[in-house]
Design brief:
The complex is a heterodimer of chains A (397) and B (339). Chain A has 397 residues and is α+β, with helices and mostly antiparallel strands. Chain A is 65% helix and 7% strand. In chain A, the strands form three sheets. Chain A has a four-stranded antiparallel sheet. In chain A, β6 (249-251) and β7 (254-256) form a beta hairpin. In chain A, α2 (84-117) packs antiparallel against α9 (306-336) and α2 runs antiparallel to α10 (348-360). Chain B has helices at 5-18, 25-32, 58-71, 87-92, 107-110, 154-165, 178-186, 197-204, 234-252, 260-263, 269-274, 282-286, 292-300, 303-310, and strands at 35-39, 48-49, 55-56, 77-81, 98-99, 115-117, 122-124, 126-131, 145-150, 170-175, 192-196, 213-215, 223-225, 228-230. In chain B, strands 10-9-11-8-12 form a five-stranded mixed sheet, with helices on both faces. In chain B, strands 4-1-5 form a three-stranded parallel sheet. In chain B, α3 packs across α9 (234-252) and α3 (58-71) packs antiparallel against α13. The N and C termini of chain B lie far apart (45 Å). At the A-B interface, α1, α4, α10 and α11 of A face α1, α4, α6, β10 and α7 of B. The complex binds glutathione. Glutathione is lined by residues 40-41, 43, 83-84, 102-104, 150, 153-155, 177-179, 195-196, 199, 223, 225 of chain B.
Chain lengths: 397, 339
């Protein structure tokens, strides 16, 4: 093969200082950040000037003012005499509760759909496909309206509500249920139960490790007994705890007492989780199908059942493929809670970028708060999911 | 039409951040060739688009009158439907030149929100609607009721104040858009629907069974509904203000859409001056030509005609003139003199 004369060994000339790639990339990035900061500063200054010229109030002082409106769903105590800041916290907690429940439900439903999708049973697999295609392709806002009115329309008014044993009531005012009122002793006992659970889990884990390392098994049943029964029961009697039940009853226009899931909450939760579950289902399907078929065949050859193969061979490996896109879906669910404002669920957009913005006129500040909130939540979800991803990747098979 | 609220707000903010909002609204409108007017997304009688997207209604007439005065063409208006929570940002950011949208004039809006309000077009107050079969005859019987209302309104604040003052509790169900307030109330989610009385009258017409609902007697607030412009452009504020006065003054002098051409040669010097007869300074003072009032009246008629056409007793809304009668008939409508 003829060799070109020009291709002799050649020492690369030492590049000039600014062309060395490391340094150059640092310089470029630094320049970019400086430009970005300048741009933001320019926009801010210009905006402040415009606001001042139009005599529009600015700053975050308004957060201390009395809000003057009420919020129907408030996991924190809030009423009209609270400040805008209190309203902001209420909206944050409402949004987080909705997002957390939504993610849990979407995951559960999504995994079921995904597993159904790869089922060898033709009917089950087709049904799952229909579910995915339907809910993925209809805009979420429409689905929210659909669920909201699908829940409201058929339900009777509070006076004709469906009831279970005179304690649980379902009407277009929501689902009213008895609410346990825990005294301080009962609350302590509940705390003891949680502590006991953590303790038992810890003991079980070290027993597992011990067995893995030495091959000897250690009994753990008594730890479970102590953690889940002994500790809480002891606390209960030591404090003389008692629990009363607040049973909802119809008084005037509506039920009082008990606790309630309002139609807005139910519709928002259903709409969000059913929509995201369709995407999760697809992710789970592709994760499972992404595992080499040889693995399944090998496990089959070893005589494992289909369920065992899924549980111990396929899914643990599929998680590596599933988790990254799942993160995006969780973030998308958290951000999509904003659409629930259209069906009167009092989340961030409704309370902060809606009512507070209009009542104070401070659009820049309220939108900035809302954006900061969504950013924080998205980054938090990313961090948690990265942690899980790291755990899954670390595991060796 | 569903616009993702945060997106529109962000877009409006981008406008606010980017370009300086000009004090030269009149020049801009003329250069552009049309007026950008913010209206309600659809309230019967006040502002409603037909199948072809032509807007009409009481609030829409104000936009048309201003366009006729400024651009010599009442149809040269582009309407932007705005929800309660979008309306002020749209005006502040320059997305619209004026807001004519069942909006209450308040201290907060007049000052901290940077708005200037033209004269009140409709004196209103907050009312309550309930189902007839509930057998309720006063707001004071509503303790514990579930109340449907719109976010970002004076309504939600008055509601809280009134129930607080009377030691009553309620559960608010608050929607971004009035269409959903109505749909939820109609579907039985709430015992009560509260809003401006005019708005309730309009909304009732589109309920499944309007006859099943009654208005309670109490009016719990003052809701003077007025067009608004943003701070910082006095001339534009004057133009919108005096266009509204022109409509009211025309009614007082008996100038109508039908007779405005004759009246332009009226023996009455007040009428002749207002309609821009030879030697009248009304154009020069405000920075338009002499015929601006004439054109506005020719385009939309006087205040009384507008009222009768869109919301009066002979329309489906059946609203009496009441407080909106001329001062000469014991009402509150009173234009400042065209002198
Ligand atoms: N006048 C009050 C209430 C305004 C209001 O809620 N108007 C309703 C009509 S009653 C409306 O225009 N709704 C249209 C919409 O939001 O879709 C205010 O200025 O805050």
């Amino acid at each position: 093969m003829p060799v070109s004369r020009d291709l002799g060994p050649m020492a690369a000339p030492k590049p000039a200082f600014w062309t060395r790639s490391r340094i150059r990339s640092v310089l470029v990035q630094f320049g970019f950040v400086v430009l970005l900061v300048l741009l933001i500063q320019f926009l801010l200054a210009n905006t402040m000037q415009n606001l001042a010229r139009q005599g529009i109030a600015s700053g975050f002082g308004f957060l201390e003012n009395r809000a003057g409106f009420d919020i129907a769903i408030a996991f924190l105590d809030f009423d009209r005499n609270g400040t805008y800041l209190d309203a902001f916290w209420t909206a944050i907690v409402n949004t987080l509760v909705l997002a957390t429940l939504g993610i849990a439900l979407a995951t559960l439903l999504g995994f079921m759909i995904g597993l159904a999708r790869v089922s060898p049973n033709w009917l089950i697999s087709r049904l799952a496909a229909v579910y995915i295609e339907t809910f993925r392709n209809i805009p979420l806002l429409l689905q929210l309206f659909f669920w909201y009115f699908a829940i409201l329309r058929p339900l009777p008014g509070p006076r004709q509500s469906f009831d279970v044993a005179g304690t649980v009531f379902l009407s277009n005012r929501g689902l009213y249920m008895p609410k346990p009122l825990l005294d301080s002793g009962a609350q302590l006992a509940l705390l003891a139960l949680v502590v006991g659970l953590i303790f038992a889990l810890f003991m079980a884990r070290s027993a597992r490790r011990h067995r893995a390392a030495t091959g000897n098994s250690v009994a753990v049943a008594h730890w479970w007994l102590i953690g889940l029964v002994g500790l809480p029961v002891l606390t209960w009697f030591a404090t003389g705890a008692s629990v009363e039940m607040s049973i909802p009853s119809l008084q005037g226009f509506n039920f009082r007492g008990g606790m309630v899931i309002l139609p807005e909450m139910l519709a928002a939760l259903l709409g969000l989780s059913i929509y995201i579950a369709a995407a999760v289902g697809e992710i789970v399907r592709s994760g499972i199908q992404g595992i080499d078929h040889g693995q399944t065949e090998a496990a089959q050859a070893m005589g494992h059942t289909r369920g065992q193969i899924m549980r111990y061979v396929v899914i643990p490996q599929a998680m590596r493929i599933i988790i990254p896109p799942l993160t995006t879906q969780y973030q998308s669910l958290a951000k999509n809670t904003s659409l629930a404002s259209a069906i009167a669920f009092p989340e961030i957009i409704s309370i902060i970028a809606g009512t507070t913005l209009t009542q104070t006129g401070q659009a820049m500040e309220t939108i900035a708060l809302a954006m900061l909130f969504y950013l924080t939540v998205s980054l938090f979800i990313a961090a948690v999911m990265n942690f899980f991803n790291w755990r899954v990747m670390r595991r060796s098979f | 039409m569903k616009i993702y609220p945060i997106l529109t707000t962000a877009a409006a903010l981008a406008v606010a951040a980017g370009g300086a909002v000009s004090a030269q609204t009149l020049e801009e409108v003329r250069e552009r060739g049309h007026l950008n007017c913010g209206v309600s997304p659809g309230v019967t009688g006040f502002s409603n688009p037909d199948d072809e997207g032509n807007w009409s209604g009481f609030d829409v007439e104000v936009c048309r009158a201003v366009a006729a005065a400024v651009l010599e063409d009442a149809d040269a208006v582009r309407y932007t439907p705005l929800s309660n929570t979008e309306r002020f940002t749209a005006l502040q950011s320059g997305e619209i030149d004026m807001l004519s949208r069942t909006t209450t004039r308040t201290l907060n809006r007049d000052t901290a929100l940077g708005l200037n309000f033209a004269p009140v077009m409709f004196y209103d107050g907050q009312g309550f609607m309930v189902r007839q079969d509930m057998g309720v005859s006063s707001v004071l019987e509503l303790d514990g009721a579930t109340v449907c209302t719109s976010a970002g309104s004076t309504t939600e604040l008055n509601l809280a104040d009134y129930f607080e003052a009377n030691g009553m509790s309620y559960e608010p169900v608050r929607f971004d858009r009035a269409d959903e307030v109505l749909a939820a109330y109609d579907a039985g989610r709430c015992d009560v629907y509260t809003s401006d009385r005019s708005g309730l009258a309009a909304r009732r017409l589109v309920m499944t069974n309007p006859a099943e609902h009654v208005m309670l007697p109490e009016t719990i607030s003052k809701e003077p509904l007025a067009p608004a412009v943003r701070h910082g452009d006095d001339q534009w504020f004057d133009i919108v203000t005096w266009t509204v006065y022109a409509l009211i003054e025309a009614e007082e002098y008996g100038v109508t859409q039908g007779n405005v051409d004759e009246m332009a040669n009226s023996e009455n010097p007040n009428i002749a001056r207002m309609l821009g007869a030879e030697g009248s300074p009304v154009g020069e003072w405000i920075g338009l030509d002499n015929k601006w009032v004439h054109r506005a009246i020719a385009a939309v008629g006087n205040y009384g005609e507008i009222f009768e056409r869109h919301v009066g007793p002979n329309t489906p809304l059946e609203i009496e003139r009441g407080m909106n009668a001329l001062h000469t008939n014991g009402g509150l409508q009173y234009a400042m003199p065209f002198k």
